[in-house]
Amino acid sequence: MGARKVEQFIYIVGEHQDGMIAENDEIFAFTREKMAQVETRELAMVIANVFAKGQYFPGPDGALSSVIHEFVRRSDRFRLSKVRKKDHCALVTALKRFDGEISVKVAMVVTIEPGRLKIDKPESFHQFLVATIPQYQEVFLEEAYAKDSKLIDLIKETTLHHINMTLQ
């Protein structure tokens, strides 16, 4: 019997929409070679336009996946993560800051239990995020977010979830 495949995902939380994709080593290798000339801020702008502003991505889905992979690959938080080779989920956020601009960043890379996240069950990613935020809340103190940012509702939901969990 062969070794179990390591589960590795990227979960994008944006003001307008969320997305989840499985990490793919072949895509990382491809983007490292083919997207070297693309500036990181341009990758962030594409992610912001799609996930925070709800703009249509004019290319094939594979191209958007490549943009996301390359953005994650370049992130210090991802490159320096000790869990990169284990089952994990990289959280990318595209959220509105206090100044009205969209901040795109790899917020955290978190270990996951095998089988917990399912690409065909988006709610599994959201539930995981709500359960995990308190352990990584300091990442959301790095910038000032707008009072109408999706992050505010996410923090409220997380707070209620954890209060209810302690009351049970």
Instruction: Summarize the amount of helix as a percent range.
Output: 40-55%
- Number of helical regions: 6
Class of secondary structure makeup:
alpha+beta
Strand fraction = 15-25%
- Kindly report the spatial arrangement of strands forming the biggest sheet: 2-1-3-4
- What characterizes the major β-sheet? 4 strands, mixed
Q: What's the end-to-end separation, in Å?
A: 41 Å
Unreliable runs, pLDDT <50, ≥5 residues?
Answer: none
Oligomer: single chain
Structure explained in plain terms:
- With 168 residues, this protein is an alpha+beta fold.
- The chain is 42% helix and 18% strand.
- It has 6 helices and 4 strands.
- It has helices at residues 25-34, 40-52, 61-74, 76-79, 122-132, 150-167, and strands spanning 8-14, 18-22, 88-96, 102-111.
- It has a 4-stranded mixed β-sheet with strand order 2-1-3-4, with helices on both faces.
- Strand 1 (8-14) and strand 2 form a beta hairpin.
- Helix 1 (25-34) crosses helix 3 (61-74) and helix 2 (40-52) crosses helix 3.
- It is globular, with a radius of gyration of 16 Å.
- The model has no long low-confidence stretch (mean pLDDT 92).
